[in-house]
Specification:
The protein has 751 residues and is an alpha+beta fold. It has 24 helices and 28 strands. Among the domains are: 86 residues, Calcium-transporting ATPase, cytoplasmic transduction domain A (Distorted Sandwich); 128 residues, Rossmann fold; 115 residues, Calcium-transporting ATPase, cytoplasmic domain N, CATH 3.40.1110. The longest helix is centred in the last third of the chain and has 35 residues.
Length: 751
């Protein structure tokens, strides 16, 4: 079984289109003992489960290399085979590279290429990044193919059409040879219907009917299309690479009273680094000395510097805008916020949208259908109606080329990859195409209150001790119960205890009561801090009327008591975020409803909801929120916004669970999506991005199918020939890719 296998990962270089991922996937999944094969185009990653005693890893790598791609275990250089060498080039030049952020160095390649780095289908090479197109391996091969074509035309002009034919024949054969070799390798692996096989059939067929000039032109245009595809794929990947490049390479580590420059990736948890004004912070950490504004826009997209002081968390990649800061490292380089964002965006490719899965299934039978249709176009008119064989063979070949589904197959993943990169730059993280598609269909948004619609930093406003109890005793017991808790209300009480100069009583066996409060053994006796409703049931409520009055003012009230002895009430207030009302307005303008789901009391919830013009449901336990989400889902897509911990059941139940939080583990890993900036207006922005992405996908599918339909008809009618067919095919692929790249500059915050 797949679950018993070992997960293995490789870096695969040279993939620049969706057809590449399909070829690798289908070739590898046929191998014995291999299951759960996933190939990510933008992340350049192959992952699979390998069962004990199954295929050797060396054989897996050999299969990928035979298809013409570079491959190596994750973290190592991905070398590919090379056979076709340009005149004046060293073997392997510009055909292999070490694919790591920030490194654009050439590395030697092994021998005996399958031809993927040759005219016809030259793929993205890490060694070529940052170079002008004409200095890349792909660019030089296009120039070579074009030069051969130009020489053939010149030879024809200077000699005769008959000799010119042989010149075009030579140009075509040189260009199509590596394509044919790859087509043969794919055929051996059970993939007869690849773009290489269609190109080979079309070129050989054109030569067979004496159209050598057009065959050579088709090979050249195909190579040009591949260059454009590679450039477009590189642009899409650059968004992810730019994120990884945000973290500085070096850091000033404090050692023995001085500082020493060390590699940022070598920093260890607990070490202290000095960050000078204007420098980027080299690691996730906590400020131990210094205060000032920190520009977090590279990480969260927040344009205004955030004031930071000792004890505040900072992100790797953020810019220290003002005073010098001493920062204690809290995360290793491989686990900092940017590294996790990059990892999340890369892994999101594997969570494929339903639309993408449908198109993939569609393409599986579409290609054989096009080949069958082409065969009918070639055979039926001559056999049934006595038409000219040469004419209909030519039209059938044109139909074969125009029928290639590259543009259709890449239409969805190109849009998804662009949307993921665009969102990541703005602090909006979505875990894959399935999440984007679900978010686009949302008609209801459910909000947790504390820490989501409100700041999550409530302040104690009132202390109401029971008769015979002093404020100090009330705070000492409450502080003992809440010690160690990270709940916002608990932290507010602990801050009040500290401000009042009261020593919290020692406590043990503390535990949370979900949706109700907390309890612990304080000073040898059980004690509780919980909601008034729960306190009333346990005979721990000292003044019900006062509790109701405080709640009517929009405050959250907790009761403190020991077994059978009320100690008093503590009232807290957590103000709504400044942009909460604007976020609700935007959601309503988009036709999306907004509801508060909170465990707080109805009076406090009503006060908050009234100010924000929202519906609300109060006094809810986690199970109640779960049922509420189920009920709301009956009317359409539901998005739940929460903190990722207390609302975990509801987040999982919702069509899209979104965690708010500035880069916390929970925010990045628990829910389907995360909002890194603590902005409520990012909720409608996330939905807006998802809707724009689905609109972009629909445009791409329309472009791909529309062009196919037009040129299929014109090819059959003889209005367009081979070179127009291949130009339309590669043109459609480039068009949908460029259209998808528009999402990289989309600002979803704008209505």
């Amino acid at each position: 079984m797949a679950g018993q296998g070992t997960k293995r990962e490789w870096t695969v270089t040279g993939m620049d289109c969706a057809a590449c991922t399909v070829k690798v996937t289908r070739a590898v999944e046929r191998l014995p003992g291999v299951s759960d094969v996933k190939v990510a185009l933008m992340a350049e990653r192959l992952s699979l489960n390998l069962e004990p005693g199954g295929t050797d890893t060396g054989e897996i790598e050999e299969v990928v290399r035979r298809l013409g791609y570079g491959i190596a275990p994750k973290g190592e250089a991905a070398a590919r085979k090379t056979a076709f060498v340009l005149p004046g080039s060293a073997p392997g030049a510009d055909h292999a590279g070490h694919d790591h952020p920030g490194h654009d160095q050439d590395s030697p390649a092994t021998a005996d290429d399958a031809g993927h780095g040759t005219p016809g289908h030259v793929h993205d090479d890490p060694a070529d990044r940052g170079k002008p197109w004409y200095r890349t391996g792909k660019g030089r091969l296009v120039i070579l193919t074009g030069a051969l074509l130009a020489l053939a035309w010149a030879f024809e002009l200077l000699t005769s059409a008959e000799l010119g034919y042989w010149a075009f024949l030579v140009a075509c054969l040189i260009g199509v040879a590596p394509v044919a070799k790859r087509a043969f390798e794919a055929l051996r692996m059970g993939q007869p219907f690849t773009i290489e096989s269609l190109m080979t059939i079309a070129a050989v067929g054109a030569l067979f009917i004496g159209a050598a000039e057009e065959a050579a032109l088709v090979v050249f245009l195909f190579a040009v299309g591949e260059v454009l595809e590679g450039v477009a794929a590189g642009k899409a990947r650059d968004g992810i690479r730019a994120l990884a490049a945000l973290v500085p390479k070096t850091a000033l580590l404090e050692i023995d009273g001085g500082t020493r420059e060390v590699p940022a990736e070598a920093l260890e948890i607990g070490q202290v680094v000095l960050v000078r004004p204007g420098d980027r912070i080299p690691a996730d950490g906590e400020i131990v000395e210094g205060a000032g504004g920190v520009d977090e826009s590279p990480v969260t997209g927040e344009s205004v510097p955030v004031a930071k002081a000792p004890g505040d968390a900072v992100f790797a990649g953020a810019i220290n805008a003002e005073a010098a800061l001493r920062v204690r490292v809290t995360r290793a380089a491989a686990d900092n916020t940017i590294a996790r964002i990059v990892r999340l965006v890369e892994e999101a490719e594997e969570a494929r949208a339903p639309t993408e899965r449908f198109i993939d299934r569609f393409s599986r039978w579409y290609m054989p259908a096009i080949v069958a249709l082409s065969a009918l176009v070639v055979l039926v008119p001559p056999l049934a109606f006595g038409q000219d064989w040469g004419t209909w063979l030519y039209r059938g070949l044109a139909l074969l080329l125009i029928g290639c589904p590259c543009a259709l197959v890449i239409s969805v993943p190109a849009s998804i990859a662009s949307a993921l990169s665009s969102g990541a730059k703005r602090g909006l993280l979505m875990k894959g195409g399935a999440v984007i598609e679900a978010a686009a269909q949302v008609v209801q948004v459910a909000f947790d209150k504390t820490g989501t619609l409100t700041h999550g930093r409530p302040m104690v406003t009132d202390l109401v001790p029971a008769p015979g109890v002093g404020e100090a005793e009330l705070l000492a017991v409450a502080g003992g119960v809440e010690a160690g808790s990270s709940h916002p209300l608990a932290l507010a009480i602990l801050r009040k205890v500290q401000e009042a100069g009261v020593a919290a009583l020692p406590a043990r066996e503390g535990r949370a009561i979900p949706g109700k409060g907390a309890e612990a053994v304080v000073g040898g006796e059980n004690a509780w801090v919980a909601s008034p409703r729960h306190a009333a049931e346990a005979v721990g409520l000292s003044d019900a009327a006062r509790a109701e009055a405080l709640e009517t003012e929009g405050k959250t009230v907790v009761a403190v008591w020991r077994a059978g002895r009320p100690l008093g009430l503590i009232a807290l207030r957590d103000e709504p975020r400044a942009d909460a009302a604007e976020a609700v307005r935007q959601l309503k303008a988009m036709g999306v409803g907004a509801t508060i789901l909170t465990g707080d009391n109805p009076r406090t919830a009503a006060a908050i909801a009234g100010g924000l013009d929202m519906d609300y449901r109060a006094g809810m336990l986690p199970a109640d929120k779960l049922e509420a989400i189920r009920g709301m889902a009956a009317t359409g897509g539901v998005m739940m916004i929460g903190d990722g911990i207390n609302d975990a059941p509801a987040l999982k139940q919702a069509g899209v669970g979104v965690a708010m939080g500035s880069g916390t583990d929970v925010a990045l890993e628990t829910a389907d999506a995360a909002i890194l900036r603590d902005r409520v207006t990012d909720v409608p922005a996330l939905i807006r991005l998802a809707r724009a992405t689905m609109g972009n996908i629909r445009q791409n599918v329309t472009i791909a199918l529309g062009l196919k339909a037009v040129f299929l008809v014109t090819s059959v009618l003889g209005l367009t020939g081979l070179w127009i067919a291949i130009l339309a095919d590669t043109g459609a692929t480039v068009l949908v890719t460029l259209n998808a790249l528009r999402l990289l500059v989309l600002d979803p915050a704008k209505e």
